[in-house]
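Subject: mismatched residue count in predicted assembly?

I count 226 residues in my input, but I want to confirm that the predicted structure covers every chain. Input:
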Amino acid sequence: TQLLEQSPQFLSIQEGENLTVYCNSSSVFSSLQWYRQEPGEGPVLLVTVVTGGEVKKLKRLTFQFGDARKDSSLHITAAQPGDTGLYLCAGFNAGNNRKLIWGLGTSLAVNP
Amino acid sequence: SAVISQKPSRDICQRGTSLTIQCQVDSQVTMMFWYRQQPGQSLTLIATANQGSEATYESGFVIDKFPISRPNLTFSTLTVSNMSPEDSSIYLCSHFGGDPFEAFFGQGTRLTVV
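Triage response: the counts match. Full output below for your records.
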């Protein structure tokens, strides 16, 4: 059974601080995705990483896929209150009946 | 990308009753997924629904408790049957789309069983 361990589970920081969220697995994924969810809404895709060692940037967010495609990280620089939400990583393998394997989620609160 | 409309957005139900959640997609999609989520926590897959065949349920979920219909490629329903307070949760429908693919979700149904 493929599992994705995501940490930390909860994070409360002050505006302007930096933070990193980690997603780790013992399994290899063909791609890994990061989603953000706000209360009362479904998760929305932030980024997909496909190649081992890949780094993608989305404004203040930096996403990295591990060389072995087993782990990923999300780094937020100078966090803002608008970054508050639930961040979820999800791994995908085409042979796994096209099901996503979800991390436990990181609930982020950025205080002004 | 296909947009999903899910309803109801929330409901408060009496124990022992049933609630049917509907998801309408604005274009045809092959597979739809139903998830359960406790607030602030991750998603747990309930079942995968394909048009024209019975839904495939994940371990711990059974058809008698969570019957699913998929009458066509744009619509699906999930029924939560004989509800108990333990069924209080957020229920989400989803499908895959795009290239590279991504998961699209309905707005979720926040169910409270009293």
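The two ends of chain B are 37 Å apart (CA to CA). Marking this ticket as 'not a bug'.
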